[in-house]
Amino acid sequence: MKVIVHDLGTEYDEMLQKKCDAVICADGKYAPCQGCFGCWTKHPAECRLKDSLHTVCRVIGRADELIIISANYYGSYSPVIKNVLDRSIGSSTPFSTYRGKQMHHTLRYGKHDLLKVFTYGDITEEEKATFELLAARNALNDGYRESQVFILKSLNELEGMLS
Description:
This protein is α/β, with parallel strands linked by helices. The protein has helices spanning 13-17, 56-61, 79-87, 125-141, 158-161, and strands at 2-6, 22-25, 65-71, 92-99, 102-107, 112-120, 144-152.
């Protein structure tokens, strides 16, 4: 399953839906993670907050390929993308295991293939390096075999790159 998480606005949803199985628009119309860990313990992979991200753990957890499209915020994701990723913590469990010779949470849905990150906006070389490190660490933590980062000079490049 291919999942796209983006902060582009709903006007891009139709184009993006043609490229994947599920689209999550990070529009900010949801609550941030409350840190209650109910999605880990009481109701596995289901957030107690009943908004558009109620089952985001399951959608992201089942993605073989996760594509994140985010504005560059100092070499990191935009705040609305970060909120979506925070709310997907239930795609792992509170138990620990070793991956890459490091301790990480056990994956609820198993390993995945590819994490792709597309970022747009002004970006320095240092921010690009930070984004690449962030994507690699996210891939390891979330059980992705590989991560790739693409710097978009224009959003017009996006449609051709998602094929």
